[in-house]
């Protein structure tokens, strides 16, 4: 069974957080679509609120703390990415942008990314198209067609025929991400052969 590494970056500031809740729903839906195709997912969730101090320090010093280094490496090694930010002042949060500013500019090239956001009212939903999507296009990621925005009222709404509800949008976006994840299993890292020191010395001696 093919196993995929999925990294979920969530920039919610509260606990509990609507941003984290949306990220969890998207992760669950993506896993369900992959399971239906006989594929597995190994999700890694990165809570940026827990890395806020490290992110600020890296921006100033240029050196990441160990926890931040692991988060950046996880994004770089992932098969796919779910990125979710709250909307502040009609755009993604500063914490969200600061984290992605720290990535190598080429690390997301060709990587499937599902973008999502949360906000108080539906009028913030366009931030997906004029803020988040351009950011990941700039980073050369492959952004899934459906972005998911969840307003406060979406969490209390139920599905109804003919209505594009939050569950329907989550399911559609997750299906698109699952379809973009590579079909082949990730190759295992090659084992490094250790040559004994005596053998290295012998190779240096003249015949």
Question: How would you describe the overall organization of this protein?
Answer:
The protein has 207 residues and is α/β, with parallel strands linked by helices. It has a single domain (2-204), classed as 3-Layer(aba) Sandwich (Rossmann fold). Helix content is 41%, strand content 21%. The protein has 7 helices and 7 strands, in the order βαβααββαβαββαα. Strands 1, 2, 3, 4, 5, 6 and 7 form a 7-stranded mixed sheet that branches. Strand 3 (80-88) and strand 4 (91-92) form a beta hairpin. The longest helix has 19 residues, at 18-36. The radius of gyration is 20 Å and the shape is globular. The N and C termini lie far apart (51 Å). The relative contact order is 0.16.
Structural class comes to: alpha/beta
Q: CATH first level: which class?
A: Alpha Beta
Sheet-strand content, in percent, reads: 15-25%
| Tally of individual helices | 7
- CATH architecture group name: 3-Layer(aba) Sandwich
Indicate the overall shape.
globular
Helix content: 40-55%
Which topology does CATH recognise? Rossmann fold
Count of folded domains:
1
Main β sheet profile: 7 strands, mixed
Please report the total strand number as a whole number. 7
Q: Element order, helices and strands?
A: EHEHHEEHEHEEHH
Rg, Cα atoms, Å: 20 Å
Mean pLDDT: 87
Unreliable residue stretches: 158-163, 187-192
CATH superfamily: Flavodoxin domain
